[in-house]
Automatic annotation (TrEMBL):
Residue intervals of the Prokaryotic-type class I peptide chain release factors domain: 16-32
Signal peptide interval: none
Name of this protein: Alternative ribosome rescue aminoacyl-tRNA hydrolase ArfB
Organism: Flavobacterium cheonanense
Stored InterPro entries: Pep_chain_release_fac_I (IPR000352), Pep_chain_release_fac_I_sf (IPR045853)
Keyword Hydrolase in record: yes
Keyword terms: Hydrolase
PROSITE patterns registered for this protein in UniProt: RF_PROK_I
Family: Belongs to the prokaryotic/mitochondrial release factor family.
Keyword Hydrolase assigned: yes
């Protein structure tokens, strides 16, 4: 995965932020909307696209477009940096191949110890009973 190549495929849009902020909110477009077309990306291989689509299924549109927003800061430039950082982390996490789990065997000594403990507990409980005369 080449970060520079992926970043060049991103498209940004500046939008007015919602919520409180006084007059600044009405005049300044500081919110940044990032869009990335996963299906038509040249920087990712087909295998990587497939893996990303599976992991990012809930975040993608029906057309396979990833949309991220950021309106944390009053500066458009900082919001753009934040959203790019978020996007790269998201893509890196989606491309990680999980390790296959190896089933482990229970050692014989552990099984024997468990059975021994069970029998000793059973013996203790038997000794609590009143003897049959």
């Amino acid at each position: 995965m080449d970060k520079d190549k992926i970043i060049s495929e991103l498209s940004f849009k500046a939008v007015r932020s919602s919520g409180a902020g006084g007059q600044n909110v009405n005049k300044v477009s500081s919110k940044v909307v990032l869009t990335f077309d996963l299906n038509n990306s040249q920087s990712l291989s087909d295998e990587e696209k497939e893996r990303s689509q599976k992991k990012l299924k809930s975040k993608l549109t029906l057309d396979g477009i990833l949309i991220l927003n950021c309106d944390e800061d009053r500066s458009q430039l900082k919001n753009k940096e934040i959203v790019i950082k978020r996007f790269l982390e998201l893509i890196e996490k989606s491309l990680v191949i999980p390790k296959e789990r190896k089933a482990t065997k229970i050692p014989k000594s552990v099984i024997e110890k468990r059975l021994k403990d069970k029998s000793s507990t059973s013996e203790i409980k038997q000794n609590r009973k009143k003897p049959d005369l």
